[in-house]
Design goal:
six-stranded mixed beta sheet; 3 domains; disordered N terminus; 35% helix; Serine Threonine Protein Phosphatase 5, Tetratricopeptide repeat; Neutral Protease, domain 2
Length: 641
């Protein structure tokens, strides 16, 4: 197994100032092999490789390395210090273009030094911020920017002690994806650019700082932490977390960080991580990032997981106590190949990250827990995907895999990139055979490692390396319909689950009068329970729900997935006995996957909207800006404006 062995990480290497050697220049040209047009983001978005969400012009001047030296101030809710951008002036340009949003820039210097540095900030654009233009010279190798983030920086969430598990210390977490890195670091905030980085981070001495880099495993007395990320990454994988944290090893290649009150639960829940790493490497090549650590964040983290290299961020809603929700670990681990290693060039190509990762996730779960288990995951996801298509409506361009997101916030996404992308890759597997498909995919990750990929470029490679002599004609695959058309084409793979057929039979019996305690719920997996709950028809009366709740304590479930599915039914049927649990859930959990559908369902009725707004007024300050922006739109925040 070709995975880097963990070094002792309580000592740090000296920081280095990198120069662009001929070897690095060759790597850089590979990273920038996708053409990026030198135009404003509002002018981009067609299938030309341009990024509609960045002002950067990396085909002219590219950032290759970041040296970050910052202080984290909880009192001011700011990160302030200096970002030194090492650049390669590929075109002999006289200006560097960067992305910023809600940053206070105080000083700019160049190396080699010049007497006067001219720089400016452009006009504000919604969710994109402001372009930053710095005049440089052909010989300029570094641009040093002194700056401060603002308290409202959308990537950063500042939690008070009461919002943490321990209740004694504050907590800071970041979420840079998709275009939020620019809210805490001036950078070329496009996935088409990759850079290495070093950082010095100063925090209160009773807290530990972590980043998407080589990390310490215990606190030090000074509160000063040094970080190195030697592999080049896109800006959306820049990450920071600061809090009262402990570390536990899960094996030679992985570990987990969490607050002391949560750490042992996390160790138990993620015990299979080492096995997942082994399976993933056997499938699609060596793990290229050294170690695979995770951090369990406070409940306000807006996602199930975030694939920050060397430190995946995880929601505490995964800690079900029975290891039933660890497919998220498999998903974030899979991103170490699809996304972190081979990266979508723009957010229009998002499916190249998430469709591949979802496919990889299911393959890991199949290898570890069997085909029946992975098919249950795929079946549930297909059902949700079809519901998404119904919500989007026939012909919606949001049902395409490649989407033109120019002028739109790329964080406003659905499960189409994930599950339609998975279905397309599964189709290729079924048509060409698993052995040949696995060989193609392994070669793909190796061939394009540490590069960005567009949809058109992938399709060209697919046709050349798999389709041209694979015995299945292009038109039979319906590639154009899959990538650039809505919905699921009629050749979509069929997903069946024998376990779910048995669940459906029990649902019919319960509907016909079988008492709820006689259901075999005690031996059902989380996925079987989810299928049962989601299949309950609208015609079921409240008395039946009350009986089910009394038998299986669903309103008190400690499994966030099951509780969420149950609360959705409670809202639909106006099952008032579950409303205290609903309010507790919405005020205690910040995961957007759960929040969006619950608030949307409440908002369908006048009474529900009143309830939703009352809850949201209590809960909003505890949500991450990514989540609150979504719910703001659903409920019309601020109310009464």
């Amino acid at each position: 197994m070709l995975i880097g062995i963990r070094r002792g990480r309580t000592e740090r290497r000296p920081r280095r100032s990198e120069k662009v050697t001929p070897v690095k220049r060759f790597m850089l040209l590979g990273m920038l092999s996708v053409s990026v047009l030198a135009c404003g983001p509002d002018e981009r978005g067609a299938r030309d490789g341009g990024d509609p969400h960045s002002w950067a012009r990396p085909d002219e001047v590219a950032v290759t390395h970041l040296d970050l030296d910052v202080t984290v101030s909880f009192e001011r809710r700011r990160i302030h210090g200096e970002a030194t951008l090492h650049i390669d002036n590929l075109a002999g340009a006289d200006e560097l273009w960067l992305d910023t949003r809600d940053l206070d820039i105080s000083r700019v210097r160049l190396h080699p030094a010049v007497d006067e540095v001219v720089w400016s900030l452009g006009d504000v654009q919604p969710f994109l911020g402001r372009p930053m233009r710095v005049e440089i010279r052909p010989e300029t190798t570094q641009v040093k920017i002194e700056y401060s983030s603002r308290p409202e920086a959308a990537a950063l969430q500042w939690l008070g002690p009461a919002q943490t598990a321990g209740g004694r210390h504050p907590f800071l977490l970041s979420q840079s994806q998709s275009v939020l890195a620019r809210t805490w670091i001036p950078c070329q905030d496009t996935p088409a650019v990759r850079m290495t980085y070093n950082a010095t981070v100063r925090v209160p001495p009773d807290l530990m700082a972590l980043m998407s880099a080589e990390n310490p495993t215990r606190k030090n007395d000074q509160g000063v932490y040094e970080f190195e990320m030697p592999q080049p990454i896109p800006s959306y994988l820049l990450a920071i977390a600061v809090g009262d944290l402990e570390y536990r090893s899960l094996g030679d290649h992985s570990g987990v960080y969490a607050e002391p009150e949560v750490i042992e639960r996390a160790v138990y829940e993620f015990a299979d991580t080492e096995r997942m790493i082994d399976v993933a490497a056997e499938l699609y090549g060596p793990y290229r990032w050294g170690v695979y650590d995770m951090i369990v964040l406070p409940p306000s983290f807006p996602y199930g997981g975030m694939e920050n290299p060397r430190l995946s961020f995880m929601t505490p809603t995964l800690l079900a106590g029975d290891r039933s929700l660890i497919s998220t670990v498999a998903h974030e681990l899979a991103h170490s190949w699809s996304g972190n290693l081979v990266t979508n060039a723009t957010w229009n190509d998002f499916w190249l990250n998430e469709g591949f990762t979802t496919y990889f996730e299911y393959r890991i779960m199949e290898q570890l827990y069997g085909r029946d288990y992975s098919e249950m995951l795929a079946f549930l996801a297909r059902r949700e995907l079809l519901e998404t298509f119904d919500d989007l409506g026939p012909g919606s361009s949001d049902g395409h895999l490649w989407i033109d997101l120019a002028g739109r916030d790329p964080d406003d996404t659905t499960d189409v990139a994930y599950e339609k992308g998975y279905a397309f890759l599964r189709l290729l597997e079924e048509r060409y055979g698993r052995e040949r498909w696995d060989r193609f995919l392994r070669d793909y990750f190796e061939r394009f490692a540490f590069q960005s990929m567009t949809t058109d470029r992938f399709l060209e490679y697919l046709r050349k390396e798999l389709i041209v002599d694979g015995g299945v004609p292009d038109e039979q695959l319906q590639i154009e319909a899959w990538i650039f058309g809505p919905g699921l084409p009629d050749n979509a793979p069929v997903i069946e689950s024998g376990a779910f057929a048995a669940v459906e039979a029990w649902l019919e019996q319960w509907m016909a009068g079988t008492p709820a305690p006689e259901l075999p719920g005690g031996v059902w997996s989380t996925h079987e329970w989810l299928h049962f709950l989601r299949s309950i028809p609208r015609t079921v009366d409240v008395a039946k729900l009350a009986e089910l709740d009394a038998a299986w304590a669903l309103s008190a479930s400690g499994n966030a997935e099951i509780l969420h599915a149950w609360l959705m039914k409670a809202i639909v049927h106006d099952y008032e006995s579950a409303y205290p649990a609903l309010e507790e859930f919405l005020t205690g959990v910040g995961r957007r996957k759960f929040l969006r559908p619950l608030y949307e369902e409440l908002a369908r009725s006048t009474e529900g909207m009143v309830r939703a707004r009352a809850i949201y007024e209590k809960a909003r300050d505890g949500y991450h800006p990514v989540a609150s922006a979504t719910v703001d739109e659903i409920l019309g925040w601020p109310f009464g404006s």
